Amino acid sequence: MRLTEEHEELRAAVRSLLARHPDESAWRPLTEQIGVAGLAVPEEYGGAGCGALEIHVVMEELGRALAPVPFLGSAVLTTQALLASDEGELLPALAEGSAVGALAWAENGSWDPDAVRAGARRAAGGAWRLTGIKDHVLDGADADVLIVAARTDAGVRLFQVAVDAPGLRRERLVPMDSSRPQARIVLDGAEGRPLGADGDGARALRRARDLGCVALAAEQVGAAERCLELTVAYAGERVQFGRPIGSFQAVKHRLADAYVRVEAARSAALGAAFAAAEGAAELPRYAAVAKSACSEAFSAVAGEMIQLHGGIGITWEHDAHRYFKRAHGGGQLLGAPARHRERLAEELGLTASRAR
Known about the structure:
The protein contains ten helices and nine strands. It is an alpha+beta fold and 356 residues long.
């Protein structure tokens, strides 16, 4: 499995732009100059009509830079949920980058679509009213387009809720990883516009979760690779007992182990991206493997980065703590590694199935 020359050109363009715009200001040039917001959006809705491999390349570079941009929440999760629901009306603005989308479905720390408990009921006059609380909504406090999963009598359904709707409260959270904004969405009778078929929301969320896991795995690989690069460079510069610490056999072993973790994670992430690009029926399995393997690899390599940097690795002046926080925050996002191993076992028929 190999990426093409065009993919590497995309990578170079994103990396160069992020070097010039290392903060949230990167979003506008990323969308206007490279068109990242519309990569997965079909051309008929103003997008580039690309797929999972292009998303993979962009997410790797965003992970390397820890770029605080709303790509995962808007261009991946929200966009894929709308595509899975056959809803195209909102896609042009998302593809253009003039609007940022947020997908609200996690409750009580769970991203299992069948575990949605927020309710949607028809009120007098036929309007749908939503009630419940959504946690860990990426970019939810600042999003222009809000998609909410709620349960009707027919099952889970997606709804668009106006961000200024009465009965809606958006609470900005202070997550461990400040480079990935999150919010809590409180719904108290807020009106929602139904999307897709009634009861089909869980299927759309499963699709969005799988593709989100594939994208997140790529980000984790990019970030883990950058952790290793920085640590190898430091080990060659830091002198103890008259020699660089990288010359000590014990340090070499740890760096070699970290390299193996990064490369194994890269294989899992790339395999999942190719499965998504090819529309493989086994995508849920690939996604579960990638999310579990890449989350744990990134956490381990980020931990080694802090250990091998010594005292400077735990200071605010060094980036090590930022990667460490992203590793642990991302490890829980869209489900912890253990949950995805359970999901894989369920897919393979190795355990009794529960909410998927």
